[in-house]
Amino acid sequence: MKVFVPNNNLEERMYIIDVFFTTFLGVDYTVEKHQNNDWLLQVEDKLIVIKDTFFSNFHQELSYLDKNNIPITIQFATNEYTPEDNLPVIYGGTTIAKNSNSITCDIDIFASAFFMLTRWEEYVVEELDNHGRFPGSSSLAYKQNFLDRPIVNEYVELLWNMLTSIGYNKERKKRNYNLIVTHDLDYPFAWTTPKKAIRKLGGRILKLDFVNFFKLLLNFIKTKINYKNDNFYTFDFLFNFYDQKKLSTYFFLMTGSNKKLDGCYNLSNKKIKKIIAAILNKGHKIGFHPGYDSHINEKIWQQELHTLQENVMVPINVGRQHYLRYQVPKTAALWDKNDMKWDSSLYYSKEGGFRTGCCYEYPLFDFLTRRELKVKEKTLCFMDTTIIDNNINIDLKKISETVKKYSGDFVFLWHNSNLYNKKLMQLFKKSIEQVI
């Protein structure tokens, strides 16, 4: 198969073409530049013309990086090639026309996918929440009601359906549904310092909440007898559950020093060392959870990773940013520079959904330096605090079925500190059951 691309914005074009054909489909292709304004895919004597409605409008490098280039509204397409009805079309039209030798697709699937995967939208829309994060409510996907759809996967299926329609008969990459369960260890223990204990107990008294005051006081006393009685020490519960389900999981540890917003636990502490040993002995994996102040600070980020590596005698090359603090493309560049394998920070904590529009692992792209990175993104599909803290109703079964349809990765996050009572433990078990 030959792919002909317009002779402009070549780094961006080569990236998205490679993601589609190499990373997602796993098929061979060659690329040639041409003077035509559209993308052309040639299979023997047959052609697919994908109308270029985006990149050909910008002949100066990076000139597309403007919030005025984000559509205010989008169209939706339904035809014989779309895997779902009402496919969101970010760039281009909705028509696909076929004759005996060619297909002409007005949907600019490559520019639309580039928009979702690179998240350049978050760079040009200068809106941040109180934690310095791009708010999901400001995204086009949220505003146009397609945040719950992995539309990049839908674009891939659309392309594949067109290719097979014109006689392409090579096999594509075989995939299987993959559940990836992760735990961010923000607080391994509820009772950390005497000062925090006084503050926690005193807060209940000030609120005249004597029932919970005595519950907390009792737990504090029990913890002094045996640290495993701590409300946040839920590791034995997790290990037993995963033994039953035959699941292997990731535990992301932090070494951050922001006393207010990081866990502030010491990896050299004997109790923490026992937890680390138990995680590894049970066959689970350890990853990196960079602290609150690290996401755009190379010095802090590297120091925290170094501290983790010094205390955990296994390779550390995967993880997720604390508080999901992530700034495109700076945070990705940090992970890439430090030879990390994959990150899983891209998720909107309050809205949920598919922040990248994708449920496949894919290489990130630094759109400012215009280069594909080695580090991959595994898009987070669900986080416990979305339903616990924000009271958002999420249909986990539906999301799981969607990811299964595309044989994708379902990345699941539950904090160990959100299992402190039987109700939350049952909710966790039920949630896992829904996505297995």
TrEMBL record:
Q: Which domain of life is it from?
A: Bacteria
Ranges of residues in domain DUF7033? 106-192
Q: Which InterPro entries match?
A: DUF7033
The record's annotation in Pfam families points to: DUF7033
Q: What is the protein named?
A: DUF7033 domain-containing protein
Organism per entry: Tenacibaculum mesophilum
